[in-house]
Amino acid sequence: MLFRATVLLLALVAYGEVQAQTTFSMPEMDKPFEKGFPAAQFTSVNQIVLDQNAPLSEFYVGDISELKFKDDDELMAWLNKLTADNYCQYMISLTERKVLLYFDLQKGAPGWGVTGWNEYLNSRLSK
Question: Which one, of 122, 115, 98, lies nearest residue 45 by Cα?
Fold first, then answer.
């Protein structure tokens, strides 16, 4: 009986470690929209353009007031396209009309850089 319980416990611990390694989520932070992260431009044609003049960053902040959606639910559905393959997460402030993007840079293709991430983001959003 003790052997079975030990094996079960080890299996659960191993499963938890695998889950932890494959889960990607935004770290907690105070006042994330005031951190001075590089800009992500959200355009009136519903595209995202990361700042080409800044080095590639895990975090970008953008103003979403230019986006053309009938309501916030439609906006959220559009942003959720970014998280489908777990390369990107976001935090949104609907009152400030800002989005913080967080990228798992380890998952991007080697050498993507800002241009590669821009192409990736807009390919996700067009689906």
Answer: 122
